[in-house]
Amino acid sequence: MSAVFLGVFAAFCWSLHDLIVKRLALGIGPFRMAALVIVAGGLWLLGPVLWSGTIWQASPRGLIEALLLGLAYGLGASGLFKAFSLGPVSIVAPLTAAYPVLVVLWGLFNGLVPSGLQWTAIAATVAGAVAVARTGHRDGGFNAVALQSRASFLFFCLLACLGYAVAVVLGQSAAVIIGETEAALVSRPTALLAILPFVWSESRTSSLKPLHWLAILTMGGLDMLGLVAVNAAGFLPGKEFAAVGISAYGAIAVVLAMMALKEKVSAGQWGGIALITAGVAGLAIP
Q: H-type helices in 142-209, by residue range?
């Protein structure tokens, strides 16, 4: 399986995950929900990792990178969940899906040399993500964010981008050293640590019902699958292209939001989705 396909699989998992976030973030509290999802993801990972037993032979370097991965991932999740409490999926998803560009830039500084076709595919993917973010309906997208909340909204989108970009780089490196599932599990405690200050600053929210707990367990599983898939790309040539595959996340999330949340999708956004699809397909060509 190519790195870009693993990225697209992660994008699909995180798109479903974010659809649930948008449904429940305001009722549960975005930071509280992020913390619970981190714990739920750890519970899904605990059994398989302990069963394999390789975690006990993990090197100190791999463990340190996995712990740092957790800090970055926790900050990224905090930014994402808070952004979803402030704006619609049709603008949050495309804006926060910009972080794969940072991962590819990191790859360029570390020896990645894309071919002409790959450069074209990267450009198409990025252009598509920008189009999805910028061409929403007049009463949707950025216009749907309350004027007094726009500065906070952009800050938390930026926090999500930076946190997830660093997490992808560290996760792929740690996976090669200690394993993709092991790296994901070790990252959970520090991810929770990064989120807790935000949780303490959050106003008290309502108690959780059985449906909320089911949703959190589902989100934890989807989050775990996405992270493990991206970590696993660290073993493959062109591992940075997994991040470009993740760029499909913005388009997938917008389509799902249209279907499930009745958010409007403009003709320009459909054009952006087509560009992203073409770009990802181009990167999948050996």
A: 150-178, 180-201
pLDDT of residue 196: 92
Query: How confident is the model over 241-275, as pLDDT tens digits?
Result: 676 677 677 677 777 777 776 766 777 777 877 78
Q: Token match 């910009």: residue?
A: 98
Q: What is the pTM of this model?
A: 0.79
Cα–Cα distance list, 193 to 28, 67, 125, 224 (Å) = 19, 10, 34, 17
CA 183 – CA 69 distance, rounded (Å): 8
Question: Domain span at residue 239?
Answer: 3-283
Name the H helices within 202-240: 210-232
3-state class (DSSP) for residue 139: coil
Query: % helix / strand / coil in the chain, to the nearest 5?
Result: 85, 0, 15
3-state secondary structure of 56: helix
Phi and psi at 32, nearest 5°, equal -60, -45
Which residue, 222, 101, 108, is CA-closest to 162? Answer: 101
User: Smallest Cα–Cα separation from 268: which of 127, 82, 136, 175?
Assistant: 136
